[in-house]
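The methods section describes the discrete structure representation at length, but only in general terms. The central task, working out the structure tokens from the amino acid sequence alone, is never made concrete. Nothing conveys this as quickly as seeing an actual entry. For illustration, here is how one protein appears when written out as sequence plus structure tokens:
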Amino acid sequence: MTRFTQTLFAAAATTLLLGAAQASVVTFETASSLTGVQSSAADYQTAVNQAFIAAGGAAHSAVVPLFDNLSNASVFGGSNSFLATRATVNFGLASAGSMDLRAGVDFGLGGAVFLDGVALGFKSNDMWWAGSYANTTQSFQFNGVALGAGNHSLTMYGLENCCDGGHQAQFSLNGAAFTTFGAADGLAAAVPEPESYALMLAGLGALVFVSRRQRVGQTG
């Protein structure tokens, strides 16, 4: 193996290790919506997703460093009324564990929370947590959620008619203190799928082949 090839393999391995060391990725999205109160978690998911489809290029999306004090106004500088909000946290766990989850929201028309595509719950009342988790009617709280090792995705869907305030999402893993989801929350990043490794190795194989042909050409 040439020094060039060795360098390529080292760089690829470093990239994968760095990817595994990163923490949660928080994506915050908003779109205009006049949709009213829904009757189930699935209905909230559908209503919000449809709002994004209808908005097209007018919808907003950003990867943010911390799931704290997020709102359309604070993140995008837009309106605070008649909004559909979709916030997603992608993270990984190195080993199985029990996780408590809580989210403080300002959804005047209610919302829902999904974990790995499965509904954890929904509320159709006017939700305004105002920075406190003491009133459980104003926030989402789920205790003792069993999670296996590997990739996970937490998504929050909500509708707001007026005066969108800040949103926050936190977790407690295996009884530890609550931590806000974000780029430095200590969780593992979502591990690349096996096909990602296969594609990388195939690419490296092609580079090795080219490197050998070049070496043969230089010595021929």
Notes: The radius of gyration is 22 Å. The first strand starts at residue 25 and ends at 32. The helical segments are 3-21, 41-55, 72-76, 194-219.
